[in-house]
Design a protein that fits this description.
By secondary structure, the protein is α/β, with parallel strands linked by helices. The chain is built from four helices and five strands; from the N terminus they run E-H-H-E-H-E-E-H-E.
Length: about 130
């Protein structure tokens, strides 16, 4: 069972355009309903998207998808402490997985911060 749930962040431009983060909505739902009566904390601000990236669905080449997300994420030490991540089992939530590049990059940041295990949870796979 996860000790904390973290959604994949959107870049502020895409969030403003869309009006919501679908991964955050999924993460919140899981946090409230995965273990009824025992909510799992959701850290919506644990990760930052450092730069705007082209949507992965628009990129057909696997290597270009990996380059698109490379170094696009970082741990947000201003909103959450590394102590809240260190040694924890984390569910990382995204809406769609294509090559897994986004999940891999986010998980890499969480592991650098000290997460014990990071599991990717997605609603759909291309």
């Amino acid at each position: 069972m996860p000790e904390i749930i973290i959604p994949v962040p959107l870049h502020h431009r895409r969030l403003r355009w869309r009006g919501f983060n679908q991964s955050q909505l999924l993460a919140t739902y899981l946090g409230e309903n995965l273990t009824p009566g025992f909510g799992i904390p959701v850290a919506t601000d644990a990760l930052l998207r450092n730069r705007y990236t082209k949507p992965q669905m628009e990129i057909k080449n696997r290597q270009k998808r990996e380059l698109n997300t490379q170094d696009a994420f970082s741990f947000n030490g201003k909103k959450i402490t590394s102590g809240e991540i260190r040694g924890k089992v984390i569910f990382l939530v995204d809406d769609i997985a294509t090559t897994g590049s986004t999940l891999f990059e986010c998980a890499k940041e969480l592991k650098k911060t000290g997460a014990k295990k990071v599991y990717g949870i997605v609603l759909a796979r291309q």
